[in-house]
Amino acid sequence: MWSPTEEEKYGVVICSFRGTVPQGLVLELGETVQILEKCEGWYRGVSIKKPSVKGIFPANYIHLKKAIVSNRGQYETVVPLEDSVVTEVTATLQEWAVLWKQLYVKHKVDLFYKLRHVMNELIDLRRQLLSGHLTQDQVREVKRHLTVRLDWGNEHLGLDLVPRKDFEVVDSDQISVSDLYKMHLSSRHSVQQSTSQVDTIRQRHGEACRMPVPHHFFLSLKSFTYNTIGEDTDVFFSLYDVREGKQISERFMVRLNKNGGPRNPEKIDRMCALFTDLSSKDMKRDLYIVAHVIRIGRMLLNDSKKGPPHLHYRRPYGCAVLSIMDVLQSISEIKEEKDFVLKVYTCNNENEWCQIHENIIRKSSTKYTAPSSNYGLIISLQLLRGDMEQIRRENPMIFNRGVAVTRKLGFPDVIMPGDIRNDLYLTLEKGDFERGGKSVQKNIEVTMYVLYADGEILKDCISLGSGEPSRSAYHSFVLYHNNSPRWGEVVKLPIPIDRFRGSHLRFEFRHCSTKDKGEKKLFGFAFTPLMRDDGTTLSDDIHELYVYKCDENSTFNNHALYLGLPCCKEDYNGCPNIPSSLIFQRSTKETFSVSTQLSSTKLTQNVDLLALLKWKAYPDRVMDILGRLRHVSGEEIVKFLQDILDTLFVVLDDNTEKYGLLVFQSLVFIINLLRDSKYFHFRPVMDTYIQKHFAGALAYKELIRCLKWYMDRSAELVRQDHIQEAMRALEYLFKFIVQSRILYSRATCGMEEEQFRSSIQELFQSIRFVLSLDSRSSETLIFTQAALLNSFPAIFDELLQMFTVQEVAEFVRGTLGSMPSTVHIGQSMDVVKLQSIARTVDSRLFSFSESRRILLPVVLHHIHLHLRQQKELLICSGILSSIFSIIKTSSLEGDVVEEVEMMVESLLDVLLQTLLTIMSKSQSQEAVRGQRCPQCTAEITGEYVSCLLSLLRQMSDTHFQHLLDNFQSKDELKEFLLKIFCVFRNLMKMSVFPRDWMVMRLLTSNIIVTTVQYLSSALHKNFTETDFDFKVWNSYFSLAVLFINQPSLQLENATPPKRKKILDKYGDMRVMMAYELFSMWQNLGEHKIHFIPGMIGPFLGVTLVPQPEVRNIMIPIFHDMMDWEQRKNGNFKQVEAELIDKLDSLVSEGKGDENYRELFSLLLLEKIEQETWRETGISFVTSVTRLMERLLDYRDCMKGDETENKKIGCTVNLMNFYKSEINKEEMYIRYIHKLCDMHLQAENYTEAAFTLLLYCELLQWEDRPLREFLHYPSQSEWQRKEGLCRKIIHYFNKGKSWEFGIPLCRELAIQYESLYDYQSLSWIRKMEATYYDNIMEQQRLEPEFFRVGFYGRKFPFFLRNKEYVCRGHDYERLEAFQQRMLSEFPQAIAMQHPNHPDDSILQCDAQYLQIYAVTPIPDNIDVLQMDRVPDRIKSFYRVNNIRKFRYDRPFHKGPKDKENEFKSLWIERTTLTLTHSLPGISRWFEVERRELVEVSPLENAIQVVENKNQELRTLISQYQHKQMHGNINLLSMCLNGVIDAAVNGGIARYQEAFFDKDYITKHPGDAEKITQLKELMQEQVHVLGVGLAVHEKFVHPEMRPLHKKLIDQFQMMRSSLYHELPGLDKLSPACSGSSTPRSNVLVSHGPMSPESIKLVHRHSPLNMLGSVRHSSSSLSSHTSSETGNLVILTDSSVGETAEDMYHMQASPSTSSLSSTHSAPSQMINSAPSSARGSPSLPDKYRHSREMMMLLPAHRDRPSSAMYPAAIMENGQPPNFQRALIQQMIGPCKPCSDPNLSVAEKAVPAAPSSWSLDSGSREALPFLSAHAGGTLAPPVPPRSLPHGHYSLHFDAFHHQLSDAPPALPARTLRKSPLHPIPASPTSPQSGLDGSNSTLSGSASSGVSSLSESNFGHSSEPPPRTDTMDSVPSQAWNTDEDLETPYLPVRYSLSEPDVLESLKSQPCRSHSAPTGVIPQDTMDPPALPPKPYHSRLPNMENEEGMMIEDDDKHRPLHRKVSQPVSGGKEEQARVAWEHGISEQ
């Protein structure tokens, strides 16, 4: 049975639960749960993460925690009973965990690891806090660490700043807004590791600064490793200041045995010291830890004879140093000890021992010796901070180890009261002693004793160092053989205070002999008393003592004998009568120096101080003694503070009249001394004295009298130093006065009360008198007043002991009121006055409500005055925030209505004015960025905003009511409302509080919404009916709109816990404001019309806020607006226009969503239904809704990482909507330009031009002026249209769409002509001419077209369930396009079939893409049918202005005939018609219409044969008319393909299928078509005959076998068709024999330009008109289809990679006559496809991907990839095939040139330099004539070393008759050499053709060609407007041609040769055959020099030296030949060079 839980309410999941049971709640480890019920080991409850989901979970999976339950029952809330910091850490860690993982995803690795570290620290600290084992101080420290880390993480993760107080999160309801603001500031500062704002405010108010924190070094000696001394040692550690050159601390002493361990076994691990009381200043000094090592043993370490073994001397050994500066950083960062090793250096010369540490620090390495090993003293250091009490508390372990506290020499910066100390530090400086008749110097040891007056040696009064017990005697170390020893050893003498007086020190000097006896002989002594006769102690100085002679026998028993002697020079001067006959004689030549330093709180070295303390001894000197007190040092005074004060008051009581003023001055001096930070901590001593020890019951009378006397004199005196000092001492003077009065009152039972009160009254009158004086003329008076004001607030607490709160408040009010107002006093006094007020407000007095009522008016008066004049804003804000803080605290306990009322009256208006001024200043500064005045900082603004908010928050209904009732007129009310609304608006606009101050921002919003609710009623009441005021209402609406749109209120962006927290505390304030706004709108009535259309945009912005309730409230307002405008104007055009305009900008800013669109439509349509104007309303709402659809799509595309295509499509969609549906021309034009920019970014220049054309077409050629718009200046319509036309023409040019640019050129020309602007006319005509040239000369790629279907509801609205045709990018094939589309729509699934999808796909929530290639159907058929039109022109019309596309899908109707599939092979032909033709404003357009037709097998066969015939005819015609020269590979392959297919299938299959009697009888209607097919077959046989005849004429001898094979196969084909087609026996004689008469040529076709033959690309989608897309039939194998797609290169010289071959799949759409080796129908007919593979790229495609495509590697392309198994004969391809393969693939490997930039590599070469390196310039007459040969890929120029075969040609011979090789020379444009023409002097080596060779290679730097009849191509310099066509020289093999032979120039100095080196911007075009431009150049004046004389080492890249004769002979040139290969190689190479037989 489930029962509600009583105790078990809250728990943490300690094991994840998967919720596998029914109603199980899934829980993750660490989640917290709220438990509602329990049952048998199970709980039912909710996870705090998802409070809406209830479920059950096992009880043992939960760790229960104590919690407080409120509101028990169904809606109970549970708060865990744990430390709030722990709760916060838990919640924060859970929040961070999510964000932390996202950091990794976003690659913010650095922050990721930092945050992980901090999170681990937080978990660890939280564990410590939960353990409950910490002390209170440790808990505080842990909490401090926790909060610092929490704030750091929140800041770095962009989370909200958490305001805290004492580490706890504050509740904003419990404190004033001003305090909250300060907490935010201090939290932010603590994050930024700066001092807290609160501290700075305190300092600003004049409180004393904090006590400096002392530092302490903890040092522990771990060991003295590798101690090689072998004797006991003493190690002394001290701190040494290098700059001062002195030790600043006592010494810490460690005694070690000879093994390096402690001599006292108890000291193991306890050899540690704490060097205390180092100030911050000390930490900045250049301090060192110095360790002196003194050994105790023999005189000389390595000489056992020196001295007997039983005698031990202290002898110097070595020294080690460690710089604290070097290690401070490392020890500050860690809390533990850190180890260091100190090397011990030994001294080279003992005489310099006292300086050894300095020498080591200075690195004077000659003076010391480094140790042999790196080992030495191992010490650990730790830096501690805080006073000693704190150190003891926090580090008990250190003190448990028996640490030796080692103090500073002298007092620390802060002398703590109760720190009793009495230490005399004595330093043995030096001595100078006589040799005493010895040959060597002495070994001197000094022994020191402390003796009391009675001669007794004081025990344990000498300490060599802390860490070891004190001793009675001190023995110095001995310096060997040194009569002038320098010791520099410091000894501490801790002598008891009672024994100090009368004690003296005695120093005995002994010589330590190293003889056998080794005795120590006494030879002298010195002494010094510790106190002088006047009672002062030995001064801190060097004392040079007299040395007296003595010997061992001398006795010191009667010390009086020597104490009477002078101890030093000063002493000698003081006692002149010294008897001459004395036991001890002074040794005049010997001296001994010591220095002393006293650190004592009990002894003084000051005579004046002693005189004061013993004043009764000098009654006549009292005045003088009191006067001299000012000259005593502060240290001495604070040491004897109590004694001095007692003395002073005794003196005062003794004679008030006489000494009163002097005692008063002394008291003032002492009080002011305690203001010094060094003695600040003695104030408690003074306080204690006043409370417990002060006994001057009568003193108050004199003190009041003196004080009043001083004040009254202030008006007269010029020098007022003493008055100012008295003012500064006011606080303690009053303490003495009050305590004295209390004592007197006690003693006399309250007598003289009235006199006391009146004297105080009089004193206050004097104070007021001082303050009321006009100080402008006297600077000293200003200082007096300032001192008084500073001290004044400190006396309130004292007065409260004697007077009631009201009385004190009256005193204070009178005093503050007496100050002149701000107008009359200077700025410095302003500040002091305000600081005094501030401290009054901060005082205890102000916390009483009775006193506040008295003081507030005067305080507010002063603040009001300052704010009015905008002075001292920062201090005023501080005072105000203190007041608000106090009032807030009081309001929690009592009633503060009256005070708030006062503040509202005095402050509200002036606060608003101040804020407006500050805000406008800061805004203007942001604009100007000039000098920044400190009062306009964000801090000031923040302070005042928080003050205003505090005040508004304290105001209740009554306050608002009073405020509004108090306005005298409506104008005043209006001004107030405008001000407050303006301030609120600025608050939201300027974002005064940083983004992460969420608590502050929400509280601000809450106060604003509450205030607005109070004020809106006043607005409605006063300004609605007759007094309607647009300005106030507009201000109100603007405020409401801004409020609702605030980023901090958009809860949708917050995390769920944060959202819940905000909603629980404040609710959704947007909804509250929306209700307020709506009700105010309704109150407007007929005045609503004033806000149309002005408020439409703002209200629209509000409705776009993603809060359903706000939308529901606000959307109906639009109906209201439409209604009011309809009433007024009869339509709502304004509402419509404004809505549409604003909607566009708002949605593009990211507002609005799909839900909004639906809600907008729903709510408005519902409202409009009842209206009379419903039809127009509905159509308007519908169009707005549709606009929203498009805008949302557009925005989603733009903001996402969407691809250009998507963005462009979306923009087109939106643009068309603006134009066609809502006719917003301006928006339409804006989107035209957005679209144009997108196209330009994507480099779609043609589309960009078409887009801009839309705008251009809207303009007329008129002079109408146009305003400035977008980036256009204000200009006439004509000018704008002209500028647009020029820009469009430029874009068409960049997109190579010159045909589209030409009409615009003409249009511009007409305009220019009509205006007689001949300059522009000339320019535009030249431009037009250039475009015609470009059409003829520049190569363009034919794009592919793809049909894309977008199916499924997940696609954007503008694509959903639509199909488009897309124009592909250059070189883009189906696979690449498909990949691109899938990457654009990563969620999409590619459909694998071309069938139309069904409804299930159309309606599903997914994305399906269906993509296939389509063939364009050109409209302009006339051009394409004209014979004489060059192919480059036709090419354009084949793929441009296309609106229809075709797609063929083969299928079998009926049963499939396995024998002959052609019988049943039908074609389903789909024709797609687009909405617009391509290209246009987009690369893709929607399909408007689909048509489906089925093509019968017979019709299909007719089309295939017809296409093939056309192809053959064109090709043959080109060879006949010499448009293709030299290389007949293309013809060979084409013939081979057709004949081979005809023999092995092809036509024969058609015969079987359609000429069969069965077929004819079954299809009687096809008779005509069958006849047509027969005729076409006959025509094909005829054409093949002509083709073979032409082939025989040009075929190379080595290719004769192929020709013979073709003839044989042709005979077979003819005979197989003979019985079907009876006309075949009349075939041309070409077929019958091997030799054919030349006259037998076919002339049925007109000559074709060489341009009509181009490179054919693999996927060429086009052929002439009826050409079929996929040429290989289902009859032919894959092999044939692949082969059919072979790349036949003409002038573009590019092969195709084998991989591409494998990816080609034949489409069985059309049957082909090609079999295994057939070339496809596209080869000839789709000439424009030549552009596809061509490397002559447009400039924009100069990038590496295409270059890589163009430059296939040789080795990667085995011939078998081209001709798979079907070609092979016995595993080897036949020779001719191999040669053919080799020819096609191109054996050349590309070479790259390091000298070429990428751009240059891609730029087509200069036509003049016979270049292959950049693709296919057709400048070469040679190339244009002989382009039939497949050329090598483009090769960038590169010089290669001798013998390097760059193209991997095998060595070969090949036959050569007249035909030169089809290899162009390499460009030399990069090199300084000129292009080298062919040599005419080539001797012919033989006539049989077997050994004549080709020298040079396709990539060689110099192509030496073996024929001399090459015309030299020269060109004029490049021009921008036109391109001259280059003279083309045909190289002829046919005697029929009459082209004259042009001589070749040889002189390289000729100017035209130099000209020809300049690269041309456009590609030149060879002139048609027979058109020979005349050579205008003069012949060379001198015969040319041979090349090798100019270029001695020039080698070609095949390693051959270029040989050249000087003589001109018409013979072939002789070249050195490469080694010959086999016959196969010869045959292959013959093909490679495309040589034809003459």
What does this structure look like?
- The protein is an alpha+beta fold and 2038 residues long.
- It contains 71 helices and 41 strands.
- The strands form 9 sheets. An 8-stranded antiparallel β-sheet has the order 25-24-27-28-29-30-23-26, with no helix packed on it. Strands 12, 13, 14, 16, 17, 19 and 20 form a 7-stranded antiparallel β-sheet that branches. Strands 1, 2, 3, 4, 5 and 6 form a 6-stranded antiparallel β-sheet that branches.
- A hairpin with an 8-residue loop joins strand 31 and strand 32 (1275-1276).
- Helix 33 packs antiparallel against helix 34, helix 34 (998-1022) packs parallel to helix 37 (1069-1084) and helix 54 packs parallel to helix 58.
- The radius of gyration is 55 Å and the shape is elongated.
- Residues 194-209 and 1623-2038 have low confidence and may be disordered.
Brief account:
The chain is an alpha+beta fold and 2038 residues long. The chain contains 71 helices and 41 strands.
